[in-house]
């Protein structure tokens, strides 16, 4: 009995110790926050704490404590850097405000003297802090989890935003503070005080004002002034202040001078040169009008220029502008009927851009024209009308043309019909043609077709035709459908080329394809109507299929997989339908979680950045906006 009781007590002690250890580990992993004040930045800023210069006066700041020394040290250093720059910015702004109103600047002068000593070192360390912040953002999912990960992620994103903002303003803030210190007019503290502050040293002003003598009107002009020996007679020193008259005279404006020079040049021109100059000026002013009305999308003004302007080049520009804003079809048809060879190709191109069924007769006649550009635009326009007769003309004539430009335009025109059988025909040109222009047009045509089959063809040719890989990824990225997003994720999981992976990430970011996705791992299985292996199968799935995650069950289920009993949740997925001719291209159902691999595309605090994460393997990939990189000048 005693032995049994002893073992029972020993077991209870072990359980208590284990519970205590678990509690201690949980506490150590928790994060907390404490107030962060200006004195935490530096004790020498104590006199400014709580003043109007204190960045924490309006918006109190907190410092996150994670109990991870690497993160805590980074948060402290970055917080000090950002707060010092905020403090400096407040000093510079308040000093400028006081200077305009004539108020004393003693407080700002004292603060700027301290900041000028601290800022250069802090500014030089900002790039390294930005780089470390990016590294910590990538590693934080591996170092934290649960609520702590959320707190750390938010703090890192806020810190990154603050560092990015002040990285561009830091030098200007420092220069403003230096200008404040160097401006001698800032050293007068107050109208009521007679002291001058220079580098924290007080100098007494003279108590008596200097005696100022005005020149006598009857003084002799040629009389030499008597020299005063200041060293021997300091008490008799006198000051004479005279206003020196300005010698410069305003004789005209730069604009008038420029007009005179232009007039002088024009006077020396011959009659032929003068006519050529006038013609060039009419072209310039006409093109400016075209660009202006295209910007405002004023089709009536553009139609007026198309039908009445005297110079063909400007009328052609107006026609192309109408095509870009997809307006003015009737006026373009009038231009084709009545205008000359220089304007007709532009008018046909504009009609093709609009692609209205009412222009079908013009497109049919355009395919028999002599101008290659007119023929090419007509075949593409025929496709946009989606007329069966036009499609037959594209297949029988356009794709058999001897001109590369006509074949390329015909491929794009054929794709606008969006008939599933045309995908195979376009794919043949992509795989077999030796002309790069035709291959690129086939890629564009598959993108225009915008069907699941055409996207799969593009996806298969990324590896098969590496010279077109970038072009193909751009074509898939332009497609806004969910199927295009699935193709990009599937490619990202299979491609090892870092450059192409980065490009895929950029397209996902442009599409704002944020959320969770599932990568099917099993060879053959089904989506179920309910989260149950005995539920009705509603869609067939196979390995490497990609689906969008809609939800997951709160409960866990035990499911037999081969010889193992696995306990996990069910995932609710939206996947492409495998039923031919289905009205709905997507279907949703449930699948057991171990049969998929979860992938997340996450939006970061910076609107131009995101993160692609494989939640099973823990691998992360930052994705960046290429336009932002060009702006920053980084690769």
Describe, in plain words, how this protein is organized in 3D.
There is one protein chain. The chain is an alpha+beta fold and 635 residues long. It has 23 helices and 15 strands. It is flat, with a radius of gyration of 38 Å. The two termini are 77 Å apart. The strands form five sheets. A seven-stranded antiparallel sheet has the order 12-11-8-5-13-14-15.
Q: Which stretches of 5+ consecutive residues score pLDDT under 50?
A: 23-28, 188-231, 626-635
Biggest sheet strand order reads: 12-11-8-5-13-14-15
Mean pLDDT: 80
- In DSSP terms (H or I, runs of 4 or more residues), the helix count works out at 23
In whole angstroms, how far apart are the ends?
77 Å
Largest β-sheet summary: 7 strands, antiparallel
**Backbone structural class:** alpha+beta
Q: Got a strand count?
A: 15
Helical content stands at 40-55%
Dominant shape: flat
Note the topology:
Layout: H1 2-29, E1 32-36, H2 38-41, E2 61-65, H3 69-101, H4 106-124, H5 126-143, H6 146-182, E3 195-198, E4 201-204, H7 254-267, H8 271-295, H9 299-308, H10 312-324, H11 329-338, H12 344-354, H13 360-366, H14 372-385, H15 388-396, H16 404-415, H17 422-432, H18 436-449, H19 452-464, H20 469-478, H21 482-494, H22 498-510, E5 515-520, E6 524-528, E7 537-542, E8 546-552, E9 557-561, E10 564-568, E11 570-576, E12 586-592, E13 596-603, E14 609-614, E15 620-624, H23 626-632
Helix pairs in contact: 3-4, 3-5, 3-6, 4-6, 5-6, 8-9, 8-10, 9-10, 10-12, 11-12, 12-14, 13-14, 14-15, 14-16, 16-18, 17-18, 18-19, 18-20, 19-20, 19-21, 20-22, 21-22
